[in-house]
Write a structure and sequence with these properties.
582 residues; alpha+beta; Beta-Lactamase; Heat Shock Protein 90; six-stranded antiparallel sheet; 62% helix; elongated
Amino acid sequence: MKITSISRKLLTRVLSVYFILTVSVTGIQIVAEYFNTKNHINSELLTLENTISGSLTRAVWELNTQQAIDISNGLVALPMIKGITVTDEANNIITQLGETIPPEKLTVTNKDKLNNEVQVISSSSGGLFGHSFPLIFEFSGRTTSVGRVTLLSSNAVIFSRIEVGIYFLLGNAIIKTAFLFFLFTLAFYKLLTSPLEQLTEQIKHIDLDDPEASKLHSLNYEKNELNILEDAYNNLIDELTDFKNKLAMSEQETNEANEQLDEQNIRLELEVAKKTSSLSSTMLKMEIQQKELLMQQQTLKEENIRRSKTEKTLLATNQELKNSIIELNKAKVCLLDAEKMASLGTLSAEVSHEINTPIGISITAASYLSDTLAHLKQNLDDNKVSKKAIESFIDKANQSTELLTSNLMRASDLITSFKHVAVDQISDKVRLVDIPNYIDEIIQSLHPKLKQTSHCVRVHCKKGLEIYTHPGAIAQIIINLIINSIIHGFEKVNRGEINIDIKLKQNNLYLNYQDNGQGMSEESLIKLFDPFYTTKSESGGTGLGTHIINNLVVDTLNGTIEAESLEGQGLKYHIIIPDMRN
């Protein structure tokens, strides 16, 4: 008959239940990690929306398609972004990069965020999801939707982020299952299988002639069912021994001559049995210690294997983080270039608007002069020309000519100043710069923006001061400093003052910039030059203005920049720019 092992059957049932429970818990953890990562990516998309909405809105409003494409390329470079679509107010596509969702597979969920319609979109197949939000341009106190942006991510991004976690969960489950299997196997063998085999072996070798020596001697000192069985068997042996002793006493009565010899033999056997039992106990203790040492050695080997796997996982994760940092730096460079071009585009739009005024006056003067000539010609044809009429015509012609000349010269000066500043900003050439004249051209190009306010700019610079440097970087720094003062420093100031002191000492240009605006707190001052730090994110601020200034001073001009401020006492910049001929 086939023998069924109780310990193996019991071990199989326990491990089966544990395996099913482990697989279920691991699956639930993986699903939870997937949805948690997806929610995190959605939050990152919303944060990215706040960062780029202002720049994209200005680009679409000003029909600057190239800037919108540059910003889109920068976004697609992010590992998280798998596709981007920018459309205008007529839903015409301006730029479309990466993956897209076909209309027949599109699922849309509308949300209301700051009274603007934001759509959470996903694909019924393909694993794409993301956000679609409108581009709202604020003009003269009114808001206008100028287009829409759709940002897409995918399940591949989610799986790439949780891949290491999945491997860790699976590896952890496998290691725990293997260790538990080994532990249960050892426990069942030690507590059940081995004691039963010992009892069975001892019972098989029972000696009816010497029942006392056939008693069961278990190594298990715990009170359990095996001890009960052992005690019952030993009681049976004791009864058999008593019966044999009674029989021996009967024989002793008939054989007194051999009694002393038998007693001596029994004593000797007992002494030998005691010494043998003591020696056996010592040997058994040594075997137990040897088994414990083997178990500790196996545990140390498993710990070393686990640590090696963990080290490999950490190395792979570290490499992935380095690659992500490289990609983020590339995207940062693209965003900085886009912000620089956006600033130049805004300046171009304001200069164009300013030029319209003198040109419009010139057109009016020319039209008036044309009407006066026509009237004079009509008088000539009718022979009604008098000296007074001719003098009146000459006077009106002189006034019109002076008006034309002054306004056209004004437009020419404005265009020339903007041309010098704009060309220098897109050029990386180093040349000798007449600082006071160049600063005047920069401020002249900012005249359209300054004349809309009551603020004034005062420049203190000695005439003839020259330095060999990047003029475009100087222009970008001055423009960003003045615009930051107007937007942030003079937000609650009616008549702001900006003072720019420039000196040349030991071939170093010292530029001290100061406004009397509302200043900054110590916490904000610490983060002043950090990228994407802004207090105007709700109105389209990107937080790149001061970061660009810092990069231009330190990286392009090889100089230094420091800022100091107290709330309510304005903001100061101390900039040192070395002469690049040294």
